[in-house]
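tool=predict chain=A
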Amino acid sequence: MLDGTWFAAIVERMKPVKPLPRSHVRVGRSRTGLGLFAAKPIKKGAVIVLYTGKLLRTKDTVVLQDHNRYLYEINKRWTIDGATRKNLGRYINHSCRPNAESDTRKRQIFIRSTRKINAGEEINYHYGRDYLVNWLGGRKKCLCVSCIRRRSEERALVRKRAARKAKAKAGKSRQRRP
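tool=predict ok
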């Protein structure tokens, strides 16, 4: 016998996805170019936007992959070309510490918040390892705030170690001189 939680999950996935009104988000200048920002506070779990565009077969997108950064692969068979400017989902930037996530239902991609997003905060989600490797050359060139902060801390630590090493070396050379 099936329990109620399983059935409730199926019913929930069957409901049509309704994103927030456009007045809740705005496109604006971000650290990495244009980004999507919350114009009003967004609750945790709210569907922010749909990632829309032309539905293409994945095998037909091989030609487009060299110059189109807005291809979103739904599965091995289908891909959405989100290059149209009407697609608000294309303005959501990558972050290694995101405040949203993407979800797929019936060839439809929607972006859902994973925590409360305050007004004025940039909306971002993790694009995935393939995107980082193919477009950015790995995490070393990622421009999200958390990666920039992490690299800055790593450089400061290296400088601190080098200064300690130089100080220790200078102290030893002074002790040797009579």
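The mean pLDDT is 82. The two ends are 90 Å apart (CA to CA).
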